[in-house]
Amino acid sequence: MTIAFVLASWRPDVPAGMERAVIAHAAGLHQIQAKSVIVTADPAAPSTYHNVPIERLHSLDVQFPCDDATLRAAIDASAAPIGEELNRLFRRHQVRAVVYVDALWGLGRIMPTHPRIRNILAAHVVGHDADLQPALARNPDAVIAPSVTVMSEAAARGYDSTSWSVVPNTLLTAPEPQSRSDRHRLWARGPVRVLARLGPEKGVAELLDPIPVLDRPIEVAVANAPFELAAGSQEQIRRRCRALAATTPGVTLLPGLAWHEVSAWLAGASVVIVPSRAETFGLVALEALAASTPVVAYDVGNLPHLIGEGGIIAPYRSGPDGLWRAARHLLTDPVGYAAASRAAYYRSRDYWPALVANQLLKVVS
After folding, report:
1. Do 191 and 142 sit in the same domain of this protein?
2. CA distance linking residue 89 with residue 79, whole number of Å
3. How many separate domains does the chain show?
4. Which of 19, 21, 122, 302 is the one with CA 20 to 30 A from 106?
5. Are residues 243 and 307 in the same domain?
6. Which CATH number belongs to the domain containing residue 300 in this structure?
7. One short Pfam family name for this protein (predicted)?
8. Average pLDDT, the chain
9. Residue 134 pLDDT grade (very low, low, confident, very high; cuts 50, 70, 90)
10. Do 185 and 159 fall into the same domain?
11. Treating both helix axes as pointing N-terminal to C-terminal, what angle do 79-92 and 68-77 enclose, rounded to 10 degrees?
12. How sure is the predictor about 211, in pLDDT bands with cuts at 50, 70 and 90?
C-alpha cells in the first residue's frame, strides 16, 4: 500500500518537528518496502527526497513563512479545489491511507473523504480548537499522536483521546554508537551545543541571558521555520540571540543545519541542551541520544519520558540556571557522564525507523 503524508509547509531542511518527522516516517516505510508520498504546498520542495516522491499542492495559495490565521483562511477559501487535487494525486499514486499531519498545517480541518482510502489525523500538537474540532468532526479512521503527552493535553482540553494511538517520531538516520575513547574526549573538551528553531517556546534567547563561564565552547544553531507566531517574530528572536552571543566570550551563534548534518553535529557535542518550555516529543533530544550525547532539558512535556537516564532533567522552575548547572554537573562527573552516554544510545533504539514504520503500518492499515 502507499501512504500519503499531507503537510502544507513540508520541504527539506525545515527546522521543525513535523517536517522532520514526516520524512523520517516516509524513509522508515521505505526501509520495510512500503511506499509513501509527501504532499506539500511549499514551492521550494523538490520532486523527490530520500527516494520518496514529493507532490506539490497547487490549489493552496500561500507564501511562507505563514501564520496560522493566514493559512486557515487560505485553506477554507480553497477547500473544494484542494479536495479535488488531492483526489487526483491519490489516484495517481494508488494511495490507500492518508496521514493529515496536523489539523491545520496538515489540512486535517478539511480532510476530504475518498473511496477505499483511510484518513488518519496526526496530532503532533493539540493546536487550536478552530482546527481540531472540525478535523475530528470529519470522523478520521484513526488519530495518532507522537506521545502520551499530546493525548493528556487533549484530554485536559476536553477531547476524548482514549481511542487515539501513540506512534512516536523516529530517526531519519540511525548512527553507530561512539567508542568510549571518543566520548571521553568529548566529555573532556567537546563543545556544549544547542539546536532549535526561532520560536519563543524553544527558550533559546532565555538560555543565553546570561551564560555562565564554562571551560569549553558553546555553540548555538538557530534557524527560521516556514511558520511563525506573528510576522517578523522569528527575526526578533534572532536579533536578541545575536546580541547576547556577541557580548559573551566563547559563544558562537550559527545558522541552522541541513537535516543530513544534524546527527554528526550533535554527535560532536559533549552535552546537548534542549531549553524548550514545551515539547510534545523532542526530536532534537532524540537525535542527540542516538549519537550517544547526553541531553539536559526541563521536566516539560515528553522530554522526561524520552530522555530518562540519558541525561539530566532539570525542574522548569529552576530556569536556565538549572540547565547550566545540570550541564556542568555532567561535565565534572566522568562516571555519571559515561553512564548517561550509554543510556542515551540504548534509549534511542526504541525509535529506530523500521521499528516505528511497522507501528505506523499497524494503525493505518
Report:
1. no
2. 15
3. 2
4. 302
5. yes
6. 3.40.50.2000
7. Glyco_trans_1_4
8. 94
9. very high
10. no
11. 80
12. confident
User: For residue 229, is pLDDT > 80?
Assistant: no
Q: Please count the residues of the chain.
A: 365
pLDDT tens, position by position, 10-37:
999 988 899 999 999 999 999 999 999 9
H helices present in the chain, as ranges: 17-31, 68-77, 79-92, 129-137, 148-156, 180-189, 204-207, 233-246, 259-267, 283-290, 303-307, 319-331, 334-348, 353-364
pLDDT at 226: 75
Question: How does pLDDT run across 98-126, given as a tens digit for each residue?
Answer: 999 999 999 999 999 988 999 999 999 99
Q: Which of 38, 97, 29, 4 is nearest to 357 (CA)?
A: 29
Given a cut of 90, whether residue 187 has pLDDT beyond it is: yes
How many degrees, rounded to 5, is the angle at CA 12 between CA 277 and CA 51?
130
Which residues, 6+ apart, have CB-to-CB distance to 185 below 8 Å? Answer: none
197 with 302, same domain? yes
Look up residue 361 and give its three cell numbers: 503500518
Sheet with 35-40: list strands edge to edge. 48-49, 52-56, 35-40, 2-6, 95-101, 118-122, 142-145, 165-166
Dihedral sign from CA coordinates of 126, 127, 129, 130: negative
pTM above 0.90, yes or no: yes
Position 47 scores a pLDDT of 96
pLDDT exceeds 90 at position 200: no
SS3 200: helix
Residues 6+ apart with CB under 8 A from 133: none
Look at the block and give the residue holding cell 553512564.
339
Instruction: Among 115, 136, 167, identify where a domain stops.
Output: 167
Q: What are 295's strand-pairing partners?
A: 272, 311
Cell of residue 64, nine digits: 511562507
Give CB contacts under 8 A, 24+ apart, made by 75-81.
75/8, 75/104, 75/107, 75/109, 75/110, 76/109, 76/110, 79/110
The Cα 302–Cα 300 span in angstroms is: 6
**CB contact at 8 A, 103 and 132:** yes
Decide: residue 213, CB within 10 A, 0-12 exposed, 13-18 middle, 19+ buried.
Answer: exposed
